Model the fold of this input.
Amino acid sequence: MFWVAWLSLLVPGYFIGYGFTLVGSLVLGGYNDTVDLVLVLIMGTALIELLLIAIYTFTRYWHGESSFSRLLLWLALGAFGIPLAALLGCVYSYAKLTLHII
Done:
């Protein structure tokens, strides 16, 4: 059960990584709009957070230092909480900086 939940971090990591490379290629190509820089920072931070959660839960599981339910809560945060926060942050920044809605 732990390994299935741990490998489920690959799904949001793939989509966040795809968005990071897509927008990051624009930024590296010389298209330096403020919203693109903000989106790259948000998605890059989300990727680092997913990586840190994966490393933390793996080491705690391997050494048996945390309870199983606590590890599953951390994995749920990584699989659902971090991508949701990144999505909301990207939508808010896009609406604020490009569309001038908010």
